[in-house]
TrEMBL record:
Localisation per UniProt entry: Cytoplasm
Gene3D superfamilies per the UniProt record, alphabetical: 3.40.50.880
Protein's UniProt name: Phosphoribosylformylglycinamidine synthase subunit PurQ
Domain of life (superkingdom): Bacteria
Recorded metabolic or biological pathway in which this protein acts: Purine metabolism; IMP biosynthesis via de novo pathway; 5-amino-1-(5-phospho-D-ribosyl)imidazole from N(2)-formyl-N(1)-(5-phospho-D-ribosyl)glycinamide: step 1/2
Length: 226
């Protein structure tokens, strides 16, 4: 069976096309473009991606309104069944607002929008999203956000660290995130939220290809043919 993925578009998403192209090029198969207002998702998905952008203009809190979109009920359901769900940037914000990931993304500590390549440390290779990286590997991936300051209480942070659920950490401070956390996994390990944009680093023309392995990891973990 060929790989089947869905990329959700919210009003204000602007990285949905890049995400779909990255999945198509790296994983092959079919990428369904799904509107946030749809009540359901296509059958038999192998992968769901929530892209970056400014859903609902980031009003209220980034991702807060998108998290209440009709399609999110189906996303929560599929996540509960173990389907891999990736949220990048605004997608990460939506996942925290939907309760699929712990913590919150607050305004950057410097109040500024940060848009540049950053170095990340891969904190675990024991996840379906990071299996093709090495633990401790330094990779370069771009960020572009004003609300990327990851916050969770100390007990939650300790738990995330203890359970190997910090997937990526900034190699240097970027936005004030607690413990420089750039990406976290849910308890079951099938939901990843991250502020950096792996879909913007998949070929040399973009300045590097360190993001490819994330999509290759997802594909490899499913054992489906492209
Ligand atoms: N690139 C993005 O997804 C931006 C995310 C979000 N709207 C922010 O600026 O924090």
């Amino acid at each position: 069976m060929a790989f089947s993925a869905a990329v959700i578009t919210f009003p204000g998403s602007n990285c949905d096309r890049d995400m779909a192209v990255a999945i198509e090029e790296i994983c092959g198969g079919t990428v369904h473009r799904v509107w946030h207002g749809d009540a359901g998702l296509p059958e038999g998905l192998d992968f769901i991606a929530l892209p970056g952008g400014f859903s609902y203009g980031d009003y209220l809190r980034s991702g807060a309104m998108a998290a209440r979109s009709p399609v999110m009920q189906a996303v929560v359901e599929q996540a509960g069944r173990g389907v891999p769900v990736l949220g990048v940037c605004n997608g990460f914000q939506v996942l925290t607002e939907a309760g699929l990931l712990p913590g919150a993304l607050m305004r950057n500590a410097g109040i500024r929008f940060v848009c540049r390549d950053v170095k990340l440390t891969v904190e675990t290779s024991q996840s379906l999203f990071t299996a093709r990286y090495f633990k401790g590997q330094t990779i370069t991936i771009p960020v572009a956000h004003h609300d990327g300051n990851y916050f969770a209480d100390e007990a939650t942070l300790d738990r995330l660290e203890g359970e190997g659920r910090v997937a990526f950490r900034y190699a240097e401070p970027v936005n004030g995130s607690q413990r420089d956390i750039a990406g976290v996994l849910n308890e079951a390990g099938n939901v990843l939220g991250m502020m950096p944009h792996p879909e913007r680093m998949i070929e040399e023309a973009q300045g590097g290809s360190d993001g490819r392995r994330l999509f290759e990891s997802v594909l490899g973990s499913l054992g489906v043919s492209a």
